[in-house]
Amino acid sequence: MDRLSDASWVEASQRGDTAAFNRLVLKWEKPVYNLVLRMLQDPDDAAETTQEIFLRAFRAIRNFRQDANFSTWLYRIAANHCLTRLRKRGHHRSYSLDDEDSRMAIDRQIPQQESHEHQFLLQDAGERVRQALVLLSPDQRLVLDLKFFQEMTFEEIAAVVQVPLSTVKSRLYDGLAVLKQHFSRRRQRIG
After folding, report:
1. Which of 112, 153, 173, 178 has its CA 20 to 30 A from that of 145?
2. pTM
3. What tens digit of pLDDT does each residue of 95-140 get?
């Protein structure tokens, strides 16, 4: 049903119906914003970038092929835009969890919280994961986001990021390994 409504709104948008494109924006704005926020880690930057993504989609809607999935096309625009922005911004650093200086830098980026039992509730755990995503490369972060937050299949992710399926799986595995190592060390420190 959603694919059908997307297809009809896309078709109308391609004919110049801005109200139809606005319906697409209303439907997809929150999921795209959430992806962008997790990638860029800055709410203001995410809001601005989301607007840029929809502007880019609006300008390119006439080139959209109806045999494709609109959400995949839109997420591809968002992913490319975020990765470009992160590379231009140059704020991403890769950290080695084996290096003491890197662990201290990571600890400064991820706020330490008291170790009370109630902090391990699901919401807090989700926040810790979101904060730990800064440890990943932008490519790993994107793949993990699309898999776990957007609930895409490996094939859909490969289509969005335009890499082979094996690369998607490798980025997912490597990203999960970084997070596992981080949380294992964190658990040891907490005791």
Report:
1. 112
2. 0.73
3. 444 444 444 444 444 444 444 444 445 566 667 777 788 889 999 9
Dist CA 178 CA 168 (whole Å): 16
* Secondary-structure class of domain 100-190 per CATH: mainly alpha
Q: How far apart are CA 41 and CA 34, in angstroms?
A: 10
Domain chopping of the chain, boundaries: 2-89, 100-190
Mean pLDDT over the full length of the chain = 83
CA atoms of 144 and 127, how far apart (whole Å)? 15
Amino acid present at 118 = H
Token look-up 């294992």 returns 184
Q: Is 151 helix (H, G, I), strand (E, B) or coil?
A: coil
Domain at 2-89: CATH code: 1.10.1740.10
Judge contact between 36 and 86, C-beta under 8 A. no
CA 53 to CA 48: how far, in whole Å?
A: 9
Q: What is the pLDDT of residues 176-186, one digit of tens each?
A: 999 999 888 88
Neighbours of 7 (CB within 10 A): 16
Residues 6+ apart with CB under 8 A from 41: 133, 134
